[in-house]
Request: fold
Amino acid sequence: MNETVDVADVMTGTGPTTARPRGVDGIDGVELRHLRAFMAVAEERSFTYAADRLRVGQPALTRTVRALEEALATRLLDRTTRRVELTEDGRRLYAELAPLLPRLAAALRAPGGQRVLRLGFTSLLPGACAELNAEFEAATGAGVRLVRRDTPLAGLDTGESDIAVLRGDAPPDADVRTRVLLHEPRVAAVGRLGATGPLARRRVLDWAELADHPLVVNTVTGSTRPELWPAGRRPRLACTADNFDEWLEAVAAGHGVGVAPREVAERHTHPGIRFVRLKNAPPVTVRLALPTRGAHPLAERFFGLGGEGGG
Reply:
């Protein structure tokens, strides 16, 4: 008869004995890469997106997650042809690892070695951060490694970054502190063909006009949603995208109009899109974010540089 294995017990070695040999700590064969792989799939709900995020092949990622499940003697993920869902044990393990992995990553950095701060960002790092990075390096002697992660917290919650640059508000349930760095103006992104073609020939658009056109929204790292317009006068949601590149292609295909920070638009070109100046549009607030508790000392130092105040 099969016994139910509690993930926490397996991790600590206190649960029921299984057929699989285990060491005294109960986690023989479990490596940090296994846990990172599981966390990425759990957050992306997709092996394809998780593999892209970790920059590994999907077959290798699948083998890594399967190895973790075998080591723990329990199924962590339910896989279907369309989506990946966490099992009860998977949800329990995710809840335990989410706060632990960032601390573990910090603890494993070699004491006395090259000090490096990992600065997370999504889609594009604001140009103003170059001066901030230089000021930080001059003040601390530490380096800055840029980490792009197309997730709401730019890798801050998974331990892949020590501090992050976020556009817009942090997720309401995120356990982070934020500091305003700057405000960026918005521009409209308009496909040159199809129904949006006439708008692409305009020199300027009014923010209120966009309520009459379907909106393409990047729901993961985007900073513009229908709720920014007044109730009763909001654009219809045309379609959503999970990352900036998908968002660009949806706008170019004429599915609807997009809105982006001007700096992002100026540094991303697409033959099928024209970026049009917007008037009366609310600016995008750019913030620094770091964990509320257990932040890296270098992240605290970076957090105190520049900016307009806490939030």
About this structure: The longest strand covers residues 176-184.
